[in-house]
Amino acid sequence: MSMTASPATRLENCAAIEAIADFARGFSLEATRPSADDIAALAAIAPADTRVYVSAVPTRPATEAIVVATQLRRAGLDPVPHLAVRNFAGAGDLDDFLQRMTGEAGVRRALVIAGDRDQPAGPFRSAIEVIDSGALQRHGLVEIAIAGYPDGHPRLSQQELDRALADKIHAAETTGIAVHIVTQFCFDARSIINWIGRLRDFGIEHPVRIGFAGPTNLATLLRYAQRCGVRASIQGLARQAGLVRQLFAMSAPDALLRPLAEARADMHLGDVSAHFFSFGGLSRTARWVAAVAERRIALEPGEGFRVEPPPAR
Question: Residue 7 domain-assigned?
């Protein structure tokens, strides 16, 4: 019996590969304290104007993020700093940060979050206080990102998350600034699809960047998942990992990306795109995503795929 795929199967595979590649195009990345060498390497891989979200580290000075954003802009990339409002000692510090980000790094978008501090450094406790203040528009920002949590939040109920999301969107739109949503990474495709469906059912049609953990080893992934409060889907990730001996093998998000890409093509998810957390390294993540966007992939049995090496020159 011939093992050659039927014409219908080949067409289905081609459609799946195109859906995956199309989903990967226009990707964004998350970076924490990248070096100048990291940024130069990224600029050689990622398309011009790729959005790079710059994490806020509570233990590091805000000027560090300004330097990174400026380097990203000079490299032809689009920096989107995290604006962790609890890190600012006062309105003056916030104004200084925004002035330098927009003036020196050409920043026009920021991800506005409360931040990880239990005790705020100043008067700001929640993202909505800064969104409402008008400071973002005064400094030339035209769009903000707000955080979404398909897997829930370790300290907030789903009702509180829903209310906060809606309030932040309303506050931003009232002050005339555009909004998109960037989700925490998650390991369960059905949870993400259901979460986006809930947004759309609530009438929230804003663009959503779906968070994926970039290629890294599973031990690192589990550590970040626990640190970031990704609770329910850690169990699914552990099942995917299999035996303990596999924990230090490389893991890529193909088995999550493929079903979401196919759902994006077949369902009414609205404006969704891919956002990658670079736990295994900025360049490694960018190379993997760029290969997917170029269709250098082969489907695997089940829900995953593998990235093929670049053609020989």
Answer: no
Question: Considering the domain boundaries, does residue 306 fall inside one?
Answer: no
Q: Could you tell me the residue range of the domain that residue 159 belongs to?
A: 25-296
CA distances from 141 to 64, 81, 88 (A): 20, 11, 18
Compute the radius of gyration of the chain from its Cα atoms. Answer: 20
Per-residue DSSP letter, 265: H
Does residue 12 lie within any of the structural domains?
A: no
Q: Taking the model in full, what pTM does it have?
A: 0.90
User: Residue 41: pLDDT band by 50, 70, 90 thresholds?
Assistant: very high
- pLDDT confidence tier of residue 42, bands split at 50, 70 and 90: very high
66 within a domain of the structure (yes/no): yes
d(CA 111, CA 277) in angstroms, rounded, equals: 14
CATH assignment of the domain containing 239: 3.20.20.220
Both tokens of 162, joined, read 């829903």
Dump pLDDT digits (tens) for 271-310: 999 999 998 689 999 999 999 999 999 999 888 999 998 8
Number of domains in the chain: 1
| Per-residue tokens: 62 | 């805000």
Q: What is the DSSP string of 11-73?
A: HHHHHHHHHHHHHHTT-EEEESS--HHHHHHHHTTSPTT-EEEE---TTS-HHHHHHHHHHHH
